[in-house]
Amino acid sequence: MKQVPASDLKTVLHSKRANLYYLEHCRVLVNGGRVEYVTDEARRSLYWNIPIANTTTILLGTGTSITQAAVRELAKAGVMIGFCGGGGTPLFAGTEQQLEVAWFPAQSEYRPTEYLQNWASFWFDDTQRLAAAKLFQRDRLENVKKHWAGSKTLKDQGFSIDAATLDQAVDRAAAAIDAAHDQTVLLTEEARLTKELYKLASRATSYGTFTRVKRGDGVDPANRYLDHGNYLAYGLGATAAWVLGLPHSLAVLHGKTRRGGLVFDVADLVKDAVILPQAFLSAVKGHSEQEFRQACIEALTRSEALDTMIETLKSTSIALGRRRSEVPLPQAAEST
User: Fold this and answer.
1) Exposed, middle or buried, 34 (CB in 10 Å: 0-12/13-18/19+)?
2) Residue 28: its pLDDT value, please?
3) How many CB atoms lie within 10 A of CB 12?
4) Residue 90, preceding peptide bond in cis (omega within 30° of 0)
5) Beta carbons within 8 Å of 116's beta carbon, 6+ residues apart
6) d(CA 203, CA 281)
7) Fewer CB within 10 Å, N or C, the chain?
8) Quick check: pTM over 0.90?
9) Half-sphere exposure of 69 (CA within 13 A, CB side)
10) How many alpha carbons fall within 13 Å on the CB side of residue 263?
11) Closest CA to 126 of 188, 48, 180, 58
């Protein structure tokens, strides 16, 4: 069957789409290249087509299940998925789909609001948002220094890093972060440091020449493991933001208009510190994808990565929200 480009599936604007499905007691799957829902009647299974290019939302109620392949196809068409109770309410979890990863954040009216209120109080101010991005980048540097030089597990696996060289790299990056006058400069410095860390990790594991290439056929093991491990960090980042009630779109570094940017901001706190060295170690040792994944999960757990993310979000929210609240309000002009 001919593959339909994802862009073609999104031709119909959401405001012009006709269908919203509420399904119960059925399975949603891909059959013959089409997304269908299956109901059982006596000894027969009945298949019903879902015109995904003309669908806005699918609500999955009581007794439903959905396959990974179906979620992937719905993501291509930009269809929103939600899990809900009988009759369509309440909504337990919902997501706007993306091609690579779909996050289903819990819908709860009892999540805290104070962090969002603080975040919103400074987010629309370019200067304050830059200050938040710098706080994130400084924490990122601290995590790299702490984990690369202090992790016994990395040392036991043969990750031999020269402490003086690492300190110099971190100090140079810290000075550049402090001097950055906008997000573009900060992103450039972030990329520069990451390239330097690739070189240090390659040298520390005797990996050889390395060039970062994302996805594609024939990429080397270190590149594959970096992609794989980074998605674990994105999952933790999404969790940390939603635990505190912060929408993923309120990024401080990866762009105001990039949906999910805050997830990338938060994931950067641990990607270079934890995922990067393990990717090179696993590549050198010839680990399978499963072995690498397990090593990453253990490293993220030992380093308390999720706690680190949550604490950085909380401290940034409180510090900049408080700073914003201390700015005196303009005085009303006296009437004459």
Assistant:
1) middle
2) 95
3) 17
4) yes
5) 244, 245, 246, 247
6) 11
7) C
8) no
9) 11
10) 20
11) 180
CB atoms under 10 Å from CB of 304, counted, come to 12
Q: What is the C-alpha R_g of the chain?
A: 23
CA distance linking residue 186 with residue 140, whole number of Å: 13
Please provide the size of the chain in residues. 336
Chain segment 126-166, per-residue pLDDT in tens: 999 999 999 999 999 999 999 999 889 999 999 989 889 99
> Tokens standing for 160?
């031999």
How far does the chain reach from its first CA to its final CA, in angstroms? 79
Q: Contact, 236 vs 229, CB < 8 A?
A: no
At 246-289, the pLDDT tens digits run 888 899 998 755 667 898 999 999 999 999 999 999 999 999 98
SS (H, E, C) the chain: CCCCCHHHHCCCCHHHCCEEEEECCEEEEEECCEEEEEEEECCEEEEEECCHHHEEEEEECCCEEECHHHHHHHHHCCCEEEEECHHHCCEEEEECCCCCCCCCCECCCCCCCHHHHHHHHHHCCHHHHHHHHHHHHHHHHHHHHHHHHHCHHHHHCCCCCCHHHHHHHHHHHHHHHHHCCCHHHHHHHHHHHHHHHHHHHHHHCCCCCCCCCCCCCCCCHHHHHHHHHHHHHHHHHHHHHHHCCCCCCCCCCCCCCCCCHHHHHHHHHHHHHHHHHHHHHHHHHCCCHHHHHHHHHHHHHHCCHHHHHHHHHHHHHHHHHHHHHCCCCCCCCCCC
Any idea what the Cα angle at residue 312 is, between residues 149 and 177, rounded to 5°?
Answer: 70
Tokens 């594609």 sit on residue: 216
